[in-house]
Amino acid sequence: MFKSRTLYEKRKGHGMAEEKAASVWVRPERARRGRPALTRTQIVDAALDLLDAEGLDGLSMRRLGTRLNSGATSVYWHVANKDELLELAIDRVMAEVAVPSGGDWRAAATGYARSLRAMIHRHPWTVTLFGGRPMIGPNATRVLDEVLAAFGAAGFTGFGLEYAWSAVVDYVIGAAGSEASWQRNQEGTSSADWVRDLHPYLTRLDAERPGLASHIRDIWMKETGDVLEGRFAFGLACVLDGLESRRP
Amino acid sequence: MFKSRTLYEKRKGHGMAEEKAASVWVRPERARRGRPALTRTQIVDAALDLLDAEGLDGLSMRRLGTRLNSGATSVYWHVANKDELLELAIDRVMAEVAVPSGGDWRAAATGYARSLRAMIHRHPWTVTLFGGRPMIGPNATRVLDEVLAAFGAAGFTGFGLEYAWSAVVDYVIGAAGSEASWQRNQEGTSSADWVRDLHPYLTRLDAERPGLASHIRDIWMKETGDVLEGRFAFGLACVLDGLESRRP
DNA sequence: GAGTTAACTCGCACACTGTACGACTAAGCT
DNA sequence: AGCTTAGTCGTACAGTGTGCGAGTTAACTC
Known about the structure:
- The structure is a homodimer.
- Chain A is built from ten helices and no strands.
- By secondary structure, chain A is mainly alpha-helical.
- Chain A is flat.
- Residues 1-20 of chain A have low confidence and may be disordered.
């Protein structure tokens, strides 16, 4: 009898050296014969539901299985492991980020930055995953291509191009990431709870570091959505100004 | 007999409403009587060893226990749960970041940024944790106080102060975070492996997106430590220039 | 139509996780 | 001496990611 073996596993034996399984992106979706089966898109859809609803911890292979009305380990036929599933998921949401074209480079950069930030707000679980593995999926690729083209049209080339682009992404990810976890923190505990938690800390701070204490009271505890908006606009403008003055 | 109960648990009963346990930082270390015991510092030391050696996944309570030559669950007497342990750990490494004083504001900001980045490089596991909960430990507090003072001396006040400071941290965390995971990625697989993994992707890219393909070949695959250094210097300079021109 | 083969699902098992619980030991106080 | 409390630890529970192999179904070949 022929032993059904996972195509995705590392192949050994036959005297050949151990061979790495290829990335999801070069490996085509399974050819479908046999009983109609789960689809990659179907699986990623369900995974996204769980991720968006409950964050990274909300996604477990078993819960994914039950959501798909299938066995806990059936997904493993279509996907090598959980990391790969997350790779698929993050590329899927990268489809939501757009780089406006047709305007000047600054409009393109701003649009890209805001679009990326909005995506992170919709899918806060992405923050942890950024840069985990190099993002190589079709949508990430498309975005990268577009943004490099926009910065290239602005005159940046070579390492300067890389530097300029990086400055924007790095800032956006840092800023949007901190906003995302701040919001996740707020929604868990009501604002009043948060204040009560902070209270003993603040009273001690009043004595030891009055400047910091008043900053926290006057700024942090009054931080609304508008303030976050202003903060992001400010930081982004700083970065873009710096780029403008360094543009070839 | 008196049932020994964890002091750290939420206290209920006696008709009083459920009460939240206070944060690690307001709760003193356990008074020591009885047999000489584990120490907070001792525990955090061991945790840091594991974290620095093998990253976030390297720290499990059981491994921590064996490293301390103690039972797997003994740590729970000194620390409410794993999250709290991580809070202690991250504050410990915050001791390593310094804000230079005595120079102009730009020197202070640069020094702070570089110091924070260096700390992240030494302890890449911090990246995921930043902003998880608001950082409230003594060292984080000290750093925050110092950096706010430096920016305050530069003329920033109120929300402008918050904006200016945030722009720097957000950029640094974004940039250092991406560098850290990039390095972690390189050290796992040898550089040659990485190239081989990317190869099928690149050949396809040559046809579909030649601009991007050549960028990857010419820039990404030649990225050395010096390049990362230059990239960070560039981005930071952009942010600081933007701040300078907006300084009151 | 019969038979073969490949695609796919799924139950079970393993090693591992965080942590609640309660029994136990040992030190200090009266 | 006896009591009280600080501190340790073995056990247990519910959950995790995933390897394995047996079972099921549909499309091919003859």
